[in-house]
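Researcher: We are triaging several targets before committing to wet-lab work. For this one, the compound of interest is glutathione. I'm pasting the protein sequence and the ligand SMILES. What I need is the predicted three-dimensional arrangement of the protein with the ligand bound, expressed as structure tokens, so it can go straight into our comparison scripts without reformatting.
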Amino acid sequence: MLRLHHAPMACSLASRFALAEAGLAHEVIVVRTARGENKAPAYLRINPRGKVPALETDAGVLTESTAILPFIADLAPGKNLLPPSGGFPRAEAQAWLSFLSSTLHAAYTGALRAEAFEGCDVEAVRSVHVARLTTALEELDAHLAGREFMLDAFSVCDLYLLVFLLWRGAPALAGRLAPSPNLDQFQQRMLARPALAAILGEEMKSMAEA
Ligand SMILES: N[C@@H](CCC(=O)N[C@@H](CS)C(=O)NCC(=O)O)C(=O)O
């Protein structure tokens, strides 16, 4: 059985989306990071870094979205959630996953959690990261012009990007991001997928209860 450790609306939502789109039996274990549950000994035994996602599998615990998403895709080869391993299209997909993690997610972290940069001016940290976020979103918006998906077909890259697009609605970013019409349309297309819309509804409910 696959068990996903996940915090509502966190980056682990991409793995939750992927498990659903892959049609794999799984359990979602909610880790309330806002309450510090990710730093509790019970969770640190699962992921000593105290981060979500963590995916418990029969072979062990896997962390890092850029590893978990391809792992899920490969467990459901009939769903074609990534190009097959070993070729250039798969390497391109991996490049996008890396970009989303190391550039887009990193920019969001600085923009939304600037106070975590100890000893630094919070507004200066936020401004630098909002600028990086803007550049990354501009690149993605241009990439999606005239395209339905990030790759030639629907993939886990789309699910990972969707989570970061949802984060644009964070109150701390209000009025700070440029319009991104292609990203807006992409987000709408993704949320027209019934499985994703249903999960997002559950996530919103979970956030409201927190
Ligand atoms: N590189 C990791 C990043 C994981 C990460 O930063 N997760 C955040 C949620 S988006 C988290 O667990 N934050 C809790 C904390 O740092 O206290 C991945 O992509 O899996």
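Researcher: Any quick observations?
Model: The longest strand covers residues 2-6.
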